[in-house]
Here is the input.
Amino acid sequence: MDAGHYVSRNHNNTLYEDCNVHCQCKGCNMAPMNITGYTRFLLARYGTEIIDDLDEMKNIKRQFKPPELLDMEAEFKIRLKELEKVTIS
Here is the structure.
Protein backbone atom coordinates (compact mmCIF):
# COMPACT_ATOMS: atom_id res chain seq x y z
CA MET A 1 0.00 0.00 0.00
CA ASP A 2 1.03 3.59 -0.65
CA ALA A 3 0.29 6.92 0.97
CA GLY A 4 -1.93 8.62 -1.60
CA HIS A 5 -2.06 12.40 -1.47
CA TYR A 6 -5.07 14.39 -2.68
CA VAL A 7 -2.95 17.56 -2.88
CA SER A 8 0.41 16.78 -4.50
CA ARG A 9 3.43 16.11 -2.29
CA ASN A 10 4.99 19.15 -3.93
CA HIS A 11 3.04 21.26 -1.44
CA ASN A 12 4.87 20.91 1.88
CA ASN A 13 2.12 22.38 4.03
CA THR A 14 -0.27 19.51 3.24
CA LEU A 15 2.36 16.77 2.98
CA TYR A 16 1.56 15.23 6.38
CA GLU A 17 -2.03 16.45 6.83
CA ASP A 18 -4.20 13.51 7.88
CA CYS A 19 -7.08 14.63 5.69
CA ASN A 20 -4.77 14.82 2.65
CA VAL A 21 -3.10 11.40 2.95
CA HIS A 22 -4.91 8.08 2.63
CA CYS A 23 -4.00 4.48 1.99
CA GLN A 24 -4.06 3.50 -1.69
CA CYS A 25 -2.93 0.47 -3.60
CA LYS A 26 0.20 1.04 -5.66
CA GLY A 27 -1.74 0.87 -8.93
CA CYS A 28 -4.24 3.56 -7.91
CA ASN A 29 -1.51 5.77 -6.52
CA MET A 30 0.73 5.53 -9.58
CA ALA A 31 -1.98 5.74 -12.25
CA PRO A 32 -3.54 9.04 -13.21
CA MET A 33 -5.49 10.08 -10.14
CA ASN A 34 -9.21 9.35 -10.06
CA ILE A 35 -9.88 12.89 -8.84
CA THR A 36 -13.66 12.45 -8.91
CA GLY A 37 -13.54 9.34 -6.73
CA TYR A 38 -11.00 10.85 -4.34
CA THR A 39 -13.08 14.04 -4.05
CA ARG A 40 -16.22 12.02 -3.26
CA PHE A 41 -14.32 10.06 -0.63
CA LEU A 42 -13.04 13.26 1.02
CA LEU A 43 -16.49 14.86 0.99
CA ALA A 44 -18.10 11.79 2.56
CA ARG A 45 -15.42 11.45 5.21
CA TYR A 46 -14.71 15.09 6.15
CA GLY A 47 -17.61 17.18 4.85
CA THR A 48 -18.02 19.86 2.25
CA GLU A 49 -15.35 22.29 3.44
CA ILE A 50 -12.41 19.91 3.11
CA ILE A 51 -11.69 20.63 -0.56
CA ASP A 52 -11.53 24.39 0.03
CA ASP A 53 -9.47 23.87 3.19
CA LEU A 54 -6.88 21.73 1.40
CA ASP A 55 -6.80 24.12 -1.55
CA GLU A 56 -6.12 27.02 0.80
CA MET A 57 -3.50 25.12 2.83
CA LYS A 58 -1.54 24.02 -0.24
CA ASN A 59 -0.71 27.63 -1.12
CA ILE A 60 0.96 28.30 2.23
CA LYS A 61 4.71 27.76 2.03
CA ARG A 62 6.12 25.72 4.89
CA GLN A 63 9.55 24.50 5.82
CA PHE A 64 9.69 21.85 8.52
CA LYS A 65 12.34 22.28 11.21
CA PRO A 66 14.14 19.15 12.50
CA PRO A 67 12.54 19.29 15.99
CA GLU A 68 9.10 19.55 14.43
CA LEU A 69 9.77 16.52 12.24
CA LEU A 70 11.01 14.55 15.25
CA ASP A 71 7.84 15.43 17.16
CA MET A 72 5.72 14.34 14.21
CA GLU A 73 7.67 11.08 13.96
CA ALA A 74 7.04 10.37 17.66
CA GLU A 75 3.33 11.14 17.27
CA PHE A 76 3.02 8.88 14.22
CA LYS A 77 4.73 6.04 16.10
CA ILE A 78 2.25 6.39 18.97
CA ARG A 79 -0.67 6.41 16.55
CA LEU A 80 0.72 3.37 14.72
CA LYS A 81 0.94 1.40 17.98
CA GLU A 82 -2.68 2.33 18.76
CA LEU A 83 -3.78 1.17 15.31
CA GLU A 84 -1.84 -2.08 15.68
CA LYS A 85 -3.68 -2.79 18.95
CA VAL A 86 -7.04 -2.30 17.24
CA THR A 87 -6.02 -4.44 14.27
CA ILE A 88 -4.75 -7.30 16.44
CA SER A 89 -7.83 -7.34 18.71
Notes: Residues 66-88 form the longest helix (23 residues). The first strand starts at residue 2 and ends at 5. The CA atoms of residues 81 and 87 lie 10 Å apart.
